[in-house]
Amino acid sequence: MIEIEGLSKCFGDLTAVNDISLSVPRGEFFVILGPNAAGKTTTIKVMAGLMRPTKGSVHICGYNIELDPLDARKRMAYLPDFPFLYDKLTPSEFFRFTGQLFGMAESDIKNESEYLSDRFSLGEFLSKPIESLSHGTKQRVAIVSALMHAPEVFVLDEPMVGLDPHHARVLKDILRERADQGMTVFVSTHQLSVAEEMADRIGIMNQGRIVAVGSHSELQAANRDSKLESIFLSLTTEADG
Amino acid sequence: MDDLKHISHWRLLFKVNQIQNWRRLKLAVLSSRLHAFLMGLFVVGYAWLAFELFRKGLQFTSSFPGLGPVLIERMIFLLFAFLFFLLLLSNVIINFTNLFRNRETHFLLTLPVSHQVIYRWKIFESGVLASWAFLFLIAPLVIAYGKTYNASWNFYFVTPVFVGLFVVLPGVFGSWVALFLARWLDRLAFQVAAMFVVILVIVFISSWLQPEVVTDEMLETRVLDVVDRLLARTQFSLFPFLPSYWVSSGLTQWIEGAVMGAFFFGLVLLSHTLFFGYLAATRSGGFFFSSLSAVNSRGRKASLWSFLHNKKSGRSAFEPKFLDRLAKLFWWSKSDSRALIVKDTLTFWRDTTQWGQSLVLLGLLVAYIMNLRYFSHRLTSDFWIDLTSYLNLGACALNLATLTTRFVFPQISLEGKRIWIIGMAPLGMRRTLMTKFLFSTVVSMIVTMALVGASCMMLSVTVGRIIYFTVAIGVMSFTLNALALGLGALYPNFREENPSKIVSGFGGTLCLVLSFLYIVGMVSLMAVTSFWAFGGSSSLVFGIGCLVFLFVSFFLGWMPLRKGIRRMTTLEV
Questions:
Q1: What is the ipTM of this complex?
Q2: What is the pTM of this model?
């Protein structure tokens, strides 16, 4: 579903992502971890088609994001850490708008937005202007709009920021359910607990490279350590030194 | 999926933004009826006043036998030529922000919307934003032109069609220039290039506008020859490949009843609009994404322009830079105040949009002052020298008011969500405001006092009057800065990050209106009570005039500043 081959991204003389290759199959919940400035967000932005790679390629559901961006983006959803929403629209108007952009039928827009709004307790906010909503509620609106068209690949950058524990749980449950149904989930986070609890596989990035990848147990075995925190710290500080 | 139907993405974007803008307008009207009323009054007032003034001016000009129609026709060509260049500049600036610094653009890029549709939507949006105000400003003149020549009713229907086709071209060209700049120039390179272009334009204007030697005898016997020589300077507006030439020719020929000629120029305009519009609408999306990717991928040291950049890194990055060293020269001031000034200067310098706009304003002012040099040669009577010197003071003050409203008023709002940083610092809100006030006042005093002094010298007024005008603009700098900063603190908008949008709120409008009324009132007062000018008044009247000027200036500056300080010290961050 996600194929990253020899991806590099340079900003002037700074190499933010350095020749990474990664394959995330259909239905996998993949969590990418890394210290600040490790290159996670840059990788995600290239995957979302926001910038061209300096070298290498990214394929989403078999489509090259650079050469066939429309076919790739039809099949994916991207949730940035601070999502853009039209402030003067209401959540229901925003859902309708994004649904139409994805070419969804009116009945599907209605059914999906109702179902997901219920899951995220958005009912009372559906007719209020988005600008009047709290940060966490806006985040829930963005998540619903991203999930509505049933993407085959869902890329999330720090999705738990601003969510209360209840809705963080709802998001985790939905992501797990969708992954079990075949959606590929690619999450970047600093919350190690999310990786421990949810991930089928975990990738650790440092200084633009993937320094480790595998399931939680594989990482434990390879590093002879039971705690993800100490594995993470040893891998990211070793490389720094 | 039975009710699935394809909806054009462009139409969807249009609809959503239409709803957004309509609700924004409704909210603005409902949240402040006074603001809406003032804006409405200004719109109607400007349209009426401008129409009346243009009509009278055109009627006066047309009354010159033989010369009138020639002058008016050239004026129409000049109007559209300048409109073309202004629209081009405006489109470059707005397209740059809208295509590369806009969150909606980045959001749309992650959705299944093609780069071409995003680009098409953004240049449409930018074109409307860049053009509406210019069209509103020139509309009374075009209507007055039609009235002067008793144009038939269809002129008023044909004109919007011509102008509508015309504005597409600077919109398209402006967006292409923005794509080019974004693709190849980083911030510092752009700043250097912009400075270079402004200096080049000033040098060109100063060499272009050379005085014409005209004797009284020539004016009496060879008027047409003199007019011809003067009009030669405006010949550029008749360049047949300028789109403004086609629209001007079309309209003037329509007025003259040469319908086929007007039709021809209409078709020339239409064919170019369709050709370039088609290229922009269907072939520029790829280039747009390349430029956007280049902007997003630009490092602090872009390789192409690396020679312009500071190579410091690591520990040496903490060493004091030029501004820090410069600030240390003001050893008597406190270090926290100096830090605030350095921060404000760096923020301003690194915000190319703000920086670019102030450069354009200052460039215009310098070009204006350089023109005065030649203008003063034609002034022989005392009355005209007096009148020009007061108008010059008014013009410089109005320019200053534009700068204070545009750049000083949004200062507090621009602190935005970061206001807690200075709010929690021992510096305190009171000193923060006073530091910002003193800094902006000193900077604007240096610039405007130098400009007024230079312009007075070019008008060849006496030393006493040079000092008088220079002190007057100094006092006005104090008032206009205090008014802008005070109102900015009284009506802050911490949610908006775009200074243009902050200024367009109620506080910004009030600031501009009060500044304008203050300048008109005070310049008129100074002229009426002048000791020297217009026949001269007694020392007593002159003294009273000066006292009233000082009192009003102090009151209008200090009151809002004091209230602003109070508001900020009790602000709950």
A1: 0.92
A2: 0.84
